[in-house]
Specification:
Elements lengths: L1 E4 L3 E3 H4 L9 E2 L4 E3 L3 E6 L4 E6 L4 E4 L4 E4 L18 H7 L2 H24 L6 E4 L4 E2 L2 E2 L5 H14 L1 H12 L7 H7 L2 E4 L2 E4 L11 H20 L14 H18 L7 H22 L6 E4 L2 H13 L21 E6 L11 E8 L10 H21 L10 H10 L19 E7 L13 E3 L9 E4 L12 E9 H10 L2 H26 E8 L5 H7 L1 H4 L3 E2 L8 E6 L5 H14 E5 L6 H13 L10 E2 L9 E6 L3 H7 L8 E6 L14 H6 L2 E7 L3 H4 L3 E12 L1 H5 L11 E11 L2 E2 L1 H16 L8 E4 H5 L2 E3 L1
């Protein structure tokens, strides 16, 4: 077997016979560079030629040329590609272990090209030519010579039991005397009471055609081991056909002898073996006798194959990705794109996802990224962000595209990169490069390190960040880019084997590795905190009031939830200013350091539980509202059951919002005491809610809240999820507050009694604790002043 390496500059005189009839380029210095990867059979050499990927090479600064990575002679000299061109050179310069590796590697490359060709038969990246085979009186599926060789080796590996069983049956009874034939065909001598036969007849057959097929089969395997370096075991001790006799079989005798014993076989396995042996001699004969008979499978652009291998093992097929997302509208095409858990999601509970964007780089080992590649990768990410934004904008699509937009919106409804809350932050988009490496000992598999960080000369992980503001992590212009290396041999092995289960397992493993590693990259430069508004503080209002200071620094990955991430950069010049911002935030929020991927609720809960043990206190200074400005404004007077209920109202709920719940009556359902329809509540135009509890007649205590908005229907199931401290029955209507306020000193007991009487007149009934409604004008009649 002859060996060439992709893109290596060879002296033309060394390879002119090897590359005869193969189109190559020659420069003015008569140097030849082969731009292919793959296999071809050279009829002039009567041998296979493999062109191997450049990942097995590396640049040597001392020798100023390319050398084989991880290979040295016995004297410690490095090996150049020219040194291993011919089989004799390989014996001289390569160890037995490396020769075995190179032959196996060649076959895996061939298999990978076959898998790609079968999946993409119209691709212009592959050049494929074969010689048709015939056998058993019918045309066979066309295979290359190497395909037949691999099928013979595979048959030996997969059918050892069949061969051993068949041979055992053939030899059963051998050398056992056939007494019937012995008595009838030979003369016996009497000695005393015994009869002695000097020439007994045994059961051994002179000609065994099935055994002859096995002899031919194992002779072929022996030839392949000697000629191409395969290491196929031959466990049956036959006198094999070798040397000049086997050459006669290659030049036509093999086909002739197989045709003579063609009809001696009946089992499916024996017929399959006969087919394989005949195809081998048929192909070898026509190649040997026809100087123009040439077959090949070559990749013109192996980077396309490498990209397909990585995408098959990591990404989502492009035909399953919406138009405009991977194949972008500016003509750019993302190599690898898939959706997976966001970096800000908890691995165990949250299902929030984002897009992961990857790009394959088919380089020699240790090659650095180009500035052009880095710039393009940032552009990919910006396009993906804009595509996601457009998905939720009604005016971003033409009329003809709207149907497709609606389908994509439904499919990706849970992937909204921009936070819809007051922070207007953007989730982090993982962005990465994938290049290849080869272990010095040429391992195909390392269970723990088949993917690893790409490091620079100082051992640091190669990462880059593009930003507009250095301390804003959750900004659409803050983009991270990291580089990883995959074990080329293992990727080639997985892709060539084409086992769906193996590929799925590694895909899950790699995606988990990417997520964790990219989190580490971010947490190296940013300090991440979880924060939640303190009891009685409206976090949404605070975020609106301090939008400029917090924009890009705060992000709510859990929708309207109160838990959110707050991040600031570690190594920035404005440290003191950022620290002051942290101190101000801590007055309104509980803040705890929280790595990305950890559950903020779990991190914050111990501190929040301690805060819940404190009594709920009314702030000393409350915003003052004058009801006189609009006497028609609606006011609701509501009841809270106990201190636990008040704390729930004040923010001890799953969303951390200031809310108050009233019973909701749904149309068509049975009457529910104290409940009204959502339409009724809406008509009251409530802008203030006054809350009281038991003992109000003695204490005169109450609380007033300003209504921010309402939620018209909260289901029974959703209500239970809010940590409501009492029994839940049926749906509810929610009033959401932005702050506790002051409307003056009220004679609250008299107001409540008055509203109860008015309620009875209007509805002819009153249930204890039922909400009461009034106008600001009515409430003013029971106010003593400020």
């Amino acid at each position: 077997m002859y060996i060439l390496f992709e893109e290596h500059q060879y002296d033309s005189r060394l390879v002119e016979n090897v590359l005869k009839d193969i189109y190559v380029l020659q420069d003015v210095d008569k140097r030849v560079s082969v731009q292919y990867v793959g296999y071809f059979y050279n009829p002039h050499l009567h041998d296979c030629v493999f062109i191997l990927p450049k990942v097995l090479l590396k640049d040597d600064k001392v020798m100023k040329t390319e050398v084989l990575a991880g290979v040295q002679t016995e004297t410690g000299e490095k090996v150049k590609p020219e040194d291993v061109l011919t089989p004799k050179d390989q014996e001289k310069y390569l160890s037995n272990e490396y020769r075995k590796f190179i032959y196996e590697f060649s076959v895996w490359v061939y298999r990978a090209l076959n898998v790609f060709y079968n999946a993409n038969p119209t691709s212009k990246a592959i050049l494929y030519k074969h010689l048709p085979q015939t056998g058993r009186g019918r045309r066979h599926r066309a295979n290359t010579y190497l395909d037949i060789v691999l099928s013979l080796i595979a048959f030996n590996q997969e059918n050892r039991d069949f061969v051993l069983f068949a041979i055992k049956n053939l030899h059963r009874g051998n050398n056992k005397i056939n007494w019937t034939r012995t008595i009838s065909h030979s003369q016996g001598f009497v000695q005393g009471k015994d009869v002695v036969y000097l020439n007994p007849v045994n059961k051994k057959r002179v000609v065994n055609y099935e055994e002859e097929l096995f002899v031919i089969f194992f002779s072929i395997l022996n030839y392949l081991n000697q000629e191409y370096g395969f290491n196929t075991p031959i466990n049956i001790q036959y006198e094999l056909i070798q040397g000049k006799q086997f050459k006669q079989y290659l030049h036509g005798m093999g086909k002739t002898r197989l045709m003579q014993i063609k009809y001696k076989y009946f089992s499916d396995k024996a017929l399959q073996l006969w087919d394989l042996c005949y195809a081998f001699f048929d192909n070898a004969y026509r190649i040997a006798t026809n100087t123009h008979a040439q077959e090949y499978i070559l990749a013109k652009s192996f980077n396309v194959i490498f990209e397909a291998m990585i995408d098959e093992l990591i990404g989502t097929p492009h035909n399953m990705i919406p138009k405009g997302l991977a194949d972008q509208r500016d003509g750019k095409q993302v190599d690898h794109l898939y959706t997976d858990l966001a970096l800000t999601s908890t691995d165990s509970q949250s299902t929030r996802e984002v897009y992961y964007i990857g790009d394959s780089k088919y380089y020699k080992s240790g090659h650095s990224l180009t500035s052009e590649s880095i710039y393009k990768q940032y552009t990919y990410a910006r396009n993906v962000v804009q595509w996601n934004i457009n998905l939720f904008l009604d005016n971003a699509y033409d009329e003809e595209d709207r149907k497709k937009r609606d389908e994509d919106r439904e499919r990706f409804k849970d992937i909204h990169l921009q936070d819809a809350s007051e922070t207007e932050g953007y989730d982090v988009i993982p962005n990465f490069f994938i290049s290849a490496f080869v272990y010095d000992d040429h391992r195909y598999n390392d269970s723990h390190n088949n993917i690893k960080k790409h490091t620079d000369g100082k051992g640091e992980h190669c990462t880059k960040v593009s930003y507009q503001f250095p301390d804003r992590l959750f900004d659409r212009d803050t983009l991270f880019l990291s580089q990883y290396d995959v074990n080329f041999l293992y990727v080639l092995y997985l892709y060539a084997r084409d086992k769906a289960n193996e590929k799925a397992q590694w895909r899950r493993h790699v995606r988990d590795v990417f997520r964790e590693e990219i989190r580490e990259v971010i947490q190296r430069d940013y300090k991440i905190y979880a924060m939640r508004a303190r009891l009685g503080v409206d976090g949404s209002l605070y975020l609106r009031q301090h939008f400029y200071e917090l924009n890009g620094r705060v992000f709510q990955p859990y929708g309207e939830g109160r838990e959110m991430y707050f991040a600031y950069a570690r190594s920035i010049n404005k440290w003191e200013q950022t620290q002051n911002q942290y101190d101000e935030l801590e007055k309104a929020f509980i803040i705890k350091e929280c790595g990305m991927g950890k559950d903020p609720q779990v991190v914050l809960m111990p501190t929040f539980e301690k805060e819940m043990l404190k009594p709920v206190e009314t702030p000393k200074w409350l915003t003052m509202h004058y009801l006189e400005r609009d006497p028609s404004r609606g006011v609701m007077v509501g009841y809270y059951k106990n201190n636990e209920h008040l704390k729930w109202i004040m923010g001890y709920n799953d969303k951390g919002s200031l809310v108050y719940n009233v019973r909701l009556k749904l149309k068509g359902e049975e009457e529910r005491e104290g409940a009204h329809t959502a339409g009724f509540y809406g008509k009251q135009k409530v802008q203030f809610v006054i809350l009281y509890t038991d003992g109000v007649e003695k204490t005169g205590e109450y609380r007033v809240f300003h209504v921010k908005d309402t939620a018209s229907k909260v289901t029974e199931k959703r209500m239970r999820d809010t940590w409501y401290p009492s029994e839940v029955k049926g749906p509810y209507f929610f009033y959401r507050f932005d702050e506790e306020v002051n409307i003056g000193k009220l004679r609250i007991s008299e107001l409540i009694e008055h509203l109860k009487q008015e309620h009875l007149k209007k509805f002819n009934s009153y249930v204890n604790d039922e909400p009461l409604f009034a106008t600001a004008e009515e409430v003013l009649e029971y106010r003593d002043g400020f």
